[in-house]
Write a structure and sequence with these properties.
This protein is an alpha+beta fold. It has helices at residues 5-17, 20-27, 31-45, 61-88, 101-106, 108-118, and strands spanning 50-53, 56-59, 93-100, 122-129. The protein folds into two domains: 5-88, Orthogonal Bundle (Arc Repressor Mutant, subunit A), CATH 1.10.10; 93-129, Periplasmic binding protein-like II (D-Maltodextrin-Binding Protein, domain 2, 3-Layer(aba) Sandwich), CATH 3.40.190. The strands form two sheets. Strands 1-2 form a two-stranded antiparallel sheet. It has a two-stranded parallel ribbon with strand order 3-4. The protein is elongated, with a radius of gyration of 24 Å.
């Protein structure tokens, strides 16, 4: 079995919001698109993930189990995106570099000045050891 991440995301948002409409808004798609993703997911898994209680969606037992996994997974995805963005967007913050005296004296001045030209809002701290 292969889990489709778009289907899982539609399920997760609908479960989190307890509403297909709110899930669609959060995902920036139409309500029918979310409904189709969830129905396809349920068909693939051969289970019911939701039941209606008035206007509110409620998770079935298997839906609750899946929601727990999806919640953890999307938390990790969010953390991963944050970390990767910080690598690609090193425009501010601080950087600590540990180096030897010889390297600090002879090579670091040129490297640091070029770095500071490219990233003027990054504070650089140099720790020199033997």
């Amino acid at each position: 079995m292969h889990i489709n991440l778009n289907q899982l995301r539609a399920f997760y948002r609908a479960a989190k919001e307890k509403s297909i409409t709110k899930a669609a808004e959060a995902l920036h798609v139409t309500q029918p698109a979310v409904t189709m993703q969830i129905k396809a997911f349920e068909n693939q898994l051969n289970v019911k993930l939701f039941r209606k209680h008035g206007t509110e969606l409620q998770l079935t037992d298997v839906g609750q189990v899946l929601y727990g996994y999806a919640k953890r997974m999307f938390k990790i995805v969010d953390e991963m995106e944050y970390v990767l963005k910080s690598y690609g967007d090193l425009t501010q913050g601080s950087l600590t570099i540990g180096t030897t005296r010889s390297f600090a004296r002879h090579l670091m001045p040129g490297l640091l000045s070029r770095f500071q030209e490219s990233f003027p809002r990054v504070k650089v701290f140099l720790k020199v050891g033997s």
